[in-house]
């Protein structure tokens, strides 16, 4: 049977997805776009084309995050609901601890970095004038928004719904999706499957209907990826599926489907969208989870990348924006060894910055959660590992 311990291949996937987001944002800030190079008739090597393809998968990486979140978080929640041990207090505490321990410092650091960058540039770049060049960063109008509405809107996961993303930290858009998937879909499962009084079920149903009315349709539609990820996790724990997922041909097929889905998502003639990509990934995650790990260095690297992935995702963009707006903008380079050196240096700096922030905050997630959870009633078999 499937054991929900460390899943090296999923850890690696989560870590690489975060680095794809970072790599894509940094490429937009440092290298000329592929379209501009193509218009100029530049002769590009296969290596350069592969670089542009890989660093163009940042948005697809977010769909990977949604599928992984459904598999790891939603699958555990579904198991607990079916076993009648689901606790809303512990579940919400775990989720909010996991989210806020990075979001709060990320918001404050965004404010500090944006203010430093704005002072050093007299606001140039932070007013959105370079958005058409980079297709990243502050938009015009209105430029960066540091209002209380934006700050608290992001703090309670209403960015892109009722508030803009805070400051220059555009990647925070996906946290609203993530949080409301945490709420809506477990709520549906709890209403249908949990042993609860009619009063509790009616109250939960009222909350669910209110959320369906208030949340955007596009956000809820994207949650299908999260839901299928949760269902895939549950299926993978059932005995017949567990045996099937050990089939070598199926594992090879899963890798091929994964690669083909990513290629198709970047091929306009095929036109595979976010939903199709996310569903394909969610359906093959059980196969990746069951694949044997080589252990050793692979496991250590996968775990390290996974541990830092959330902090990296939420801290890299304001950091890069400050450096670029102060010292580089509006310069961008064609592919060259010099440009590659600048890119590598900035990539390393952003990773080191994220590691420092992780060490200060996110690494303490479990200890903070357990300190707070000791004040709550202890449901049977509460999970001891953060996802």
């Amino acid at each position: 049977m499937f054991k929900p311990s460390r899943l090296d291949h999923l850890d690696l996937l989560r870590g690489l997805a975060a680095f794809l987001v970072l790599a894509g944002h940094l490429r937009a800030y440092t290298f000329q776009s592929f379209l501009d190079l193509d218009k100029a008739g530049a002769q590009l090597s296969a290596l350069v084309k592969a670089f542009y393809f890989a660093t163009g998968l940042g948005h697809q990486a977010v769909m990977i995050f949604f599928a992984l979140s459904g598999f790891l978080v939603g699958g555990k929640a579904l198991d607990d609901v079916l076993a009648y041990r689901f606790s809303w207090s512990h579940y919400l505490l775990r989720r909010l601890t996991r989210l806020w321990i990075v979001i709060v410092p990320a918001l404050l650091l965004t404010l500090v970095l944006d203010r430093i960058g704005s002072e050093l540039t007299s606001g140039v770049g932070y007013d959105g004038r370079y958005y058409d060049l980079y297709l990243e960063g502050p938009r015009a109008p209105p430029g960066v928004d540091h209002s209380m509405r934006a700050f608290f809107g992001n703090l309670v996961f209403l960015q892109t719904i009722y508030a803009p993303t805070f400051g220059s930290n555009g990647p925070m858009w996906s946290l609203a999706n993530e949080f409301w998937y945490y709420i809506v879909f477990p709520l549906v499962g709890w209403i249908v499957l949990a042993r609860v009084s009619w009063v509790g079920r009616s109250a939960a149903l009222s909350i669910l209907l209110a959320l369906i009315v208030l949340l955007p349709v596009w956000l809820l539609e994207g949650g299908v990826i999260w839901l299928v990820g949760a269902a895939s996790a549950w299926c993978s724990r059932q005995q017949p599926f567990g045996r099937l997922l050990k089939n070598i041909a199926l594992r090879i097929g899963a890798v091929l489907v994964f690669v083909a889905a990513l290629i198709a998502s970047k091929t306009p003639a095929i036109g595979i969208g976010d939903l199709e990509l996310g569903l394909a990934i969610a359906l093959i995650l059980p196969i990746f989870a069951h694949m044997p790990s080589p252990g050793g260095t692979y496991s250590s690297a996968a775990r390290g990348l996974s541990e830092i992935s959330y902090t990296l995702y939420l801290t890299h963009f304001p950091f890069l924006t400050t450096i670029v707006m102060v010292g580089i903008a509006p310069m961008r380079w064609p592919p060259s060894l010099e440009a590659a050196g600048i890119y590598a240096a900035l990539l390393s700096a952003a990773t080191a910055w994220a590691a420092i922030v992780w060490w200060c905050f996110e690494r303490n997630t479990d200890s903070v959660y357990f300190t707070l959870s000791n004040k709550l009633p202890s449901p049977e078999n509460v999970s001891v590992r953060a996802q």
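The chain has a mean pLDDT of 93. The chain has one domain: 8-373.
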